[in-house]
Amino acid sequence: MTNHEINKGDYLIALPSAYNPNDVEFNQSVILLTDHNIDGCMGFILNKPTAYLLSELVPESNGAFTVYHGGPVESDRLFCIHKCPDLIPDSIAITDQLYWGGDFTTIFNHIEKGLLTHLDLRFFMGYAGWDNGQLDMELSSQHWIKTDAIHLNPFEQPTKTYWKQAIQTLGTEFSVWLNAPENPNLN
């Protein structure tokens, strides 16, 4: 097994043929890795919106934010990534420009005051997680392409095109995947 250099702040881009055709959870997904340690890795799927608004899940938030499906682990728990550690206490650094978590009471108060908008943060239900060595094995099996150079803003990109834009950043070697159907069963 090859040892892949995995770091928080890396992006994982799912390759369409890698998964069971009936598994649409990770098909055409782009994941931001938010933590990596001896126990494993965690991250959030950036391009899978749910039908829920934040205000529907947390009425006291008064937030008209789309909530995204972050992954299958703890799918009943709310998480967020953001770029405002100066406004959100207890934030955890992902990179020097991206953070996750923090004090949700403060976040909701700042949303109410208009200090935080959808351009500053994104909410997720659940996360994607891997035990120690599991992600390295999936990378070796080419379930994912790992990159730290996507250069796409996770707060501004339209979700329908996010995966294709991520694939395009990988170069012509991966351009064959650009025409893959969203649902592998339609291939």
Brief descriptors of the model:
187 residues, ten-stranded mixed beta sheet, 30% strand, globular, 4 helices, alpha+beta, single chain
Give a brief rundown of this model.
It is built from 4 helices and 10 strands; from the N terminus they run ββββαββββαβαβα.
Q: What is the share of helical residues? A: 10-25%
Tally of extended strands?
A: 10
Radius of gyration: 16 Å
Give me the number of helical elements. Answer: 4
Order of helices and strands: EEEEHEEEEHEHEH
Strand content: 25-35%
Runs with pLDDT <50, length 5+?
none
**Coarse shape:** globular
Q: SS-based structural class?
A: alpha+beta
Mean pLDDT: 87
Biggest beta sheet attributes: 10 strands, mixed
What's the N-to-C terminus distance? 31 Å
Structure description:
By secondary structure, this protein is an alpha+beta fold. The protein contains four helices and ten strands; from the N terminus they run ββββαββββαβαβα. The protein has helices at residues 54-57, 104-113, 134-140, 159-168, and strands at 11-14, 30-37, 40-45, 49-53, 66-69, 73-82, 92-93, 99-100, 121-131, 144-147. Strands 1, 2, 3, 4, 5, 6, 7, 8, 9 and 10 form a ten-stranded mixed sheet that branches. The radius of gyration is 16 Å and the shape is globular.
Topology:
Blueprint: E1 11-14, E2 30-37, E3 40-45, E4 49-53, H1 54-57, E5 66-69, E6 73-82, E7 92-93, E8 99-100, H2 104-113, E9 121-131, H3 134-140, E10 144-147, H4 159-168
Parallel strand pairs: 5-9
Antiparallel strand pairs: 1-2, 1-10, 2-3, 3-9, 4-5, 6-8, 6-9, 7-8
